[in-house]
Amino acid sequence: MQNKNKATAVLAACASAAAVTLPGISPFSGIAAGSQFGNFWLNFFNHGFLAATIGGLADWFAVTALFRKPLGISFRTEILKRNRQRIMEEIVGFVGTDLLNTKNIMETVRDENTAKMLIDFFEMNKGREKTKIIAVEILKEVLSKTDTAAFAKKVTPILEDEIKNLDIEKLIDSAVKVITSEKHSRRILVTLFETAGKILSSPHIQESIAEKITELRESYEGDSAGRALVLSSMNLTDEKILNILNENAERKISETIDILNFKGMPDAKKSDAAEELLTAFEKFIRTAAADLNGKKILKGLKNIFTGEFDSESYIKNWLNVNIKGETDAKVLEKINRLSENPYQSRIVKIEKNLPIWQTAVEKLIDEKIDNFIQSPVQQEKFDKLIKNFIESLLETYHGQIPGMIRERLDKLSDEELTEFVEGKVSDDLQMIRINGSVCGGVVGMLLYVISYFIIGKAE
Questions:
Q1: Cα–Cα 20 to 30 A to 77, which of 11, 160, 237, 393?
Q2: Are 64 and 33 in contact (CB under 8 A)?
Q3: Distance, CA of 78 to CA of 87 (rounded, Å)
């Protein structure tokens, strides 16, 4: 039950009790007359309930007068509506100047750890994924507005001129030095062996190897029942031979990758094996580079970029596909031709490739977030930066807070403002009515007792 209903029930109960205990008409008058103190108690309660009724009515009038005209009485009522402007100015002044001043707000802000809040956002609210999505979408939006045609038009002449003046021999020599350096050669070899492992385990290669094993077995057995018996007794089926080959190849690849990635205390055996692999790789690269015909390569490049090849369109298309993430124009043209072919019923699905920068950007964001989470120094700097930023904003725009509050209040009509305030405080104000009835009843009883003994002594 709301306080308003409680207050009304208390007022009604007090009025009813006052009427029931009224001397002369009370049904308890006969009982009271037959008792020495009967009239005292009847009057005692009557005065109490009557005073409680008066107190409850007075407070009902006072509470109602704040918002509207009780019983149609307009004198000193509708206080909120009549004093709207003054009340609004007091509210605006209190909230904007006292309650929400820069000092009070910053005291609350400085108690918070903004770095911890950001970390919680990253770790518990999928903030890491949201941050990457937002960053990628912003970059896509920016790059989508790039004029790739104009860029390609400017770059193509520069590229063609560079190719004409290119020292291919020097370029090949520089490339060989980079590739054969220990740091890069180790990475290249690891990547090559990992790729070889993936290729070897692919269904197509496995099927091809299985076919070759079957051909070799059949060729080995020929018409000899003895050879077939030997293989059968050893349980060397085609599938088992394939599994043995796969296990040996995977073990060798894994061992080689471990050797190339070996870190820690020097191990003579692994160190020698790694050095042997790196030396063989360097020898292979230098031999391959020596066999290259630099002049022929340069001539081919010149023919490509200065001949019939439309390098400008190629650069534009490459940028659109790899930087903007658009579908290749040639693929779209092919799809259009297929869709226009009445004999082509096959549905072709276009899958867009990710822009070449997206994976790198997402990886960079992950690294920066991990560094931030693990670095108390960065967290302290961030927390200080955010709080200083908030304080500078408050100092700059704090004067707008009262205006914003006033603007919001001005939009409310008198009725809307009254309903808004009443809806927020009315239920609490009803306690005044209840307390008024209780206090009035106690005071009424107390006054009756005092008057009773004073009059009694005077008599």
A1: 11
A2: no
A3: 13
